[in-house]
Amino acid sequence: MKLVVNGNQYEHNGEGTISSLLGELQIECTKAAVMVNDSVVKRDQHSSAGLKPGDRVEILTFAAGG
């Protein structure tokens, strides 16, 4: 399914959930905030929130720094 992920076209081959997308991108869900079409998706909804072709997904990852 074709998505726009962080402003770039992306072909997602998974089951169509945020969890499967994060897994495909090798991003730990505990270290990311996700928005789909400008709406924040809570972490406990990542495995149930479905994605549709053309959805705009923004993934913000957290990194420690000092």
Automatic annotation (TrEMBL):
Membrane spanning stretches: none
UniProt cross-references to Gene3D superfamilies, sorted A to Z: 3.10.20.30
Xref: PANTHER family: SULFUR CARRIER PROTEIN THIS
Protein name from the UniProt record: Thiamine biosynthesis protein ThiS
